[in-house]
Amino acid sequence: MTSPVSELIELLSLERLEDNLFRGQSRDIGTKYVFGGQVLGQALSAAQATMSEPRAAHSLHAYFLRAGDVEHPIVYDVDRTRDGGSFSVRRVTAIQHGKVIFFCAASFQEAEAGAEHQPPMPQVPDPDDIAPADPVPLEVLARLPTKVQRWLNRGGPFEFRQVHPRDDLKPSKQPPFNQVWFRLCERVGDAPELHRALLAYASDFHLLGTATFPHGISYYQPNVQMASLDHALWFHRPFRADDWLLYAIDSPSAQGARGLARGQVFSRDGRLVASTAQEGMIRVVDAQAAATG
Could you list the active site residues? Predict the structure, then answer.
């Protein structure tokens, strides 16, 4: 049987249709539509595949325009916007059923030395000192919608260990802060491009959900509608997605049916390797309308 990690790497390995045109498959992991991290990772993979210079992605800025259909592939059209002396820019448009569902700009840079600073990593327990989350009891799982069952019961490619666990099936109100250790479940090759695409995929987990913490709601409730609107990702320093990384997230604001979340990704030895930001739609609708909608 193919492992979840192998499936993910295959998902991020796009079929080249033309010099700047790629096709990626979709996977149903239990979300209602295509998981946003899949589109982020595939778009970055497409942009990286058009680079002829030895330049590494340092930032990605994306907008989600339409929900993706998990039953069909996605075509990625890359525009080679600029190749300058030190930097390159690529614009990627994701198309499904003849419509644009997502677009992003990614910037690449040749390796350079320069001034450095970063904040200290939060003081948290080591991942080896945090027990893996218990599986959802079968009797509880059986009462949930099929999609939610698949999401909660999946054996995914990443392992997550929550510093402060939260029961999203019975969410309580708490401050909008979240700290999660995560790593790929298997060792993979050394290509930095692969590890950046893997981190782009994983960066969509736990981020927007942190904005729901003060309100005692969660994605799993039928009257809660959530969707990513945009996503930004900056790569600062080398890392491996198959080593433990700490995702430290906070949400400074929620308003107008939108929530904002920010994240910092640290390596186990305390280096800040990436930063993220995301705004998403968070709606609480009438429970009866949600049940019949």
Answer: 204, 228, 278
